[in-house]
Amino acid sequence: MNKEQACFHCFQPIPKGVDITVEVFGEAQPMCCYGCQAVAETIVDQGLTHFYKYREVDDSQGPALIPEELAGLDEAVTAYDDAEIQKEFVLTQNDHSSASLAVEGMTCAACAWLIERQLGNHAGIEKVVVNATTDRVHVTWAAGKTKLSSILKAIHQIGYKALPFQQADLEEQYERKRRSYIRRLGVAGIASMQTMMVAVGLYYDDIDATTRLYFWWVSLLFSAPVFVYSCQPFFQNAWRAIRSKSLNMDVPVSLAIIFAFFASFYATVTDTGDVYYECVTMFAFFLLSGRYLELLARQKAITNAANLMKLIPAIAEKQTAEGWQKVMVKHLVPDDVIQIRPGEAIPVDGVLLSQQAWCDEAQLTGESRPIAKRTGETIYAGSVNQENPLRMRVTHTHQNTLLAGIIHLQDDALGQKPRVVQLADHISKYFVLATLIIASATYLGWYFIAPEKALWTVLAVLVATCPCALSLAAPTAMSGAVSRLNQSGILLKQANVLQALPGITTVCFDKTGTLTHGRFHILEAWHQETSEQSRHEAIAAALEFSSEHPIAQPFRRLAKPVDLNEVENTPGLGVEGRVDNTLYRIGSLAFVQQWHPQLSSPMPQANVFLATEQGLIACWRVDDELRDDATTMLQWCKKKGFHTIMLTGDTQERALAVAESLALDEVHSALKPDDKLAILRKQQHQGPVIMVGDGINDAPVLAQADASITFASGSELAQSGSDVVILNGELTAIRRLFDTAKKARLVIRQNFAWALGYNGIILPLAVMGYVGPLWAMLGMSTSSLIVISNSLRLLRKQAY
């Protein structure tokens, strides 16, 4: 076969009319089809051209078509399509799958944009959220249209390594990246010291030409490893951006390093001009130092989220026919019965089978006090069993637990790009372009004024104006704010809400489940014979166990019921039953008056009565109780000047009673969902409105409001359409939310002011030659660290 007319990749004949080439070893090599072209481009892009140089052709089997490195990659990512493996990291709902991917190689917003664009054009992908701060990609796809392996390969094709995000691997990935930075820093640091010592010797005017040339070659010897090894991350990121026809902050930095190195190399070989080897090594050292410190700061900002999954143990005790056996948590399925010992974390969501348990849910809700759980109540993965061993039946595992839902929503919030972040990214791209234009103009200007200073000055311009601080200004502040709120039991589903909150003028509250607990409580009691109170409560509990009315719930918790016979339930009135040959009735006043027509209530507002055929023996006032912190919250709203409104479907009498006790500005009662929506829309004409509701019946108004807050747990968390979910059930958490939003806005403004102010000052100074490249590099690194450090203040409690 004449290989000149064959495909360079597969050696097959090239069909007539096909003119496809790929540049390999600096030459355009012919390809027979677009498939070979795609594979060849991937091989070149991955730096695997040694495959073509050393491959052997086996006449019996034909040429190898894929390098071992890529073949191994394809085999590895294809394994992630297995349904059993996906249970641990893929959430599937209604034929839609979603997963978080850990991506290596991201350094800035431009990397995030490139990955978003690559996946956005991929068939079957419905949503892509890239978070450069946490190096994560959250992707949602149609299960029937694409596979996870193809998504991973699409990311690999543009030079990034992506794998399903596993919390257990987070520290290992971070440690690997940290070690890589330290190695590169070590090489750059040692070389910097040597080249600077040589540079000091070159400053003397009486040095002879031979010694000077010797010093140049020594500097080249120390600078070459820095250029080839330490600077590799900057070059890779810059090349990715150029290939995708975009610009990022590493483009001007890489150009500065490349210009300085090759200009010095040319001067060394030809023994003419000046050398800048100390600039190359110091550039690398300062840049890597800044990136390393930035890595440490970013790790601190996302540690809180990562620590959540550390709560889940790897082993659980499962009940089997042979007794209790230890099994891997990932092998548990719904309806399994497991046992948790005191002090151990609960591995999955489930229903309590034991009579009672105390669970510490601080990591989930921010509530520091243990929560009492009774038989049949839900306990959540991540909470800690406080006292006696407990038994539970598994209901949700893997990605379907409440804890996994919290982490997914948190990742979504961290990955979203609020308008201020989008603006910063947009400005950064144009800022880099402007920097390159200004650098070119600066070089031309100095070339005619003082040619010997032209390169030196343009290096300073390229480095000094790198928009690192500008790109970090908003994302780092948002990450700090979201992380701090999550620690307090406040979960953001929409990061944009932090921008909207400072402008809110009106706060609308639902009543039931928002200003009140949403469940009935016994508020007052009257007993004909005080000494018989315990017996009355036991009889009431026994009778109310036969009722499905919500008002019966507090009586079931009141006392241990006695034995009951001849039970008869009269819907809308009450329950009748016999205890120890005595007939009792419990229910409304009208129900008891059927026995005693002249009976009147001995206690104002009593609504549940217990009587025998001889007369009334007890009565109670049962109602929905105000939240303990409702008064405090409303007082704070008044102090801040908010207009407060109640929107409720409850009766006017009960709504007014609550409104008067809380001093609300407006009350609208007996409302249907459409009525609430109309009132809220009318109020929005006066200014931005935030709606606080229970997340079930208030979905339309929660969606319409400029910002929305709800209280939720378990399945309600996933169903809620609000912007913010308060997990700890505290109404006063809204205060912390507002305070955090205000603080985040202040920090973002400070970051932008510093970043823009620094660039506004340093740029003209660098153009005029007053700032050398080394000082420019130090200033740029310091500017980025100031922005990150300022944002980290949001993680401290003192920030509130």
Automatic annotation (TrEMBL):
Example GO biological process: copper ion homeostasis
Lineage, top ranks: Bacteria, Pseudomonadati, Pseudomonadota, Gammaproteobacteria, Alteromonadales
One Pfam family per UniProt: Hydrolase
Claim: RNA-binding is one of the keywords in the record: no
Membrane topology, record value: Multi-pass membrane protein
Database matches in Gene3D superfamilies: 3.30.70.100, Calcium-transporting ATPase, cytoplasmic domain N (3.40.1110.10), Calcium-transporting ATPase, cytoplasmic transduction domain A (2.70.150.10), HAD superfamily/HAD-like (3.40.50.1000)
Predominant cellular place of this UniProt entry's protein: membrane
Membrane-spanning intervals of the chain: 185-204, 216-235, 247-269, 275-293, 430-449, 455-474, 752-771
Source organism (scientific name): Aliidiomarina taiwanensis
Similarity annotation: Belongs to the cation transport ATPase (P-type) (TC 3.A.3) family. Type IB subfamily.
Protein name according to UniProt: Copper-translocating P-type ATPase
One cellular component term from this protein's GO annotations in UniProt: plasma membrane
Keyword field: ATP-binding, Cell membrane, Ion transport, Magnesium, Membrane, Metal-binding, Nucleotide-binding, Phosphoprotein, Translocase, Transmembrane, Transmembrane helix, Transport
Matching InterPro entries: ATPase-cat-bd, ATPase_P-typ_cyto_dom_N, ATPase_P-typ_P_site, ATPase_P-typ_TM_dom_sf, ATPase_P-typ_transduc_dom_A_sf, ATPase_P-type_domA, HAD-like_sf, HAD_sf
Residues covered by the HMA domain: 97-163
Compartments (UniProt record): Cell membrane
The keyword Nucleotide-binding is annotated on this UniProt entry: yes
GO molecular function: ATP binding; ATP hydrolysis activity; copper ion binding; P-type divalent copper transporter activity
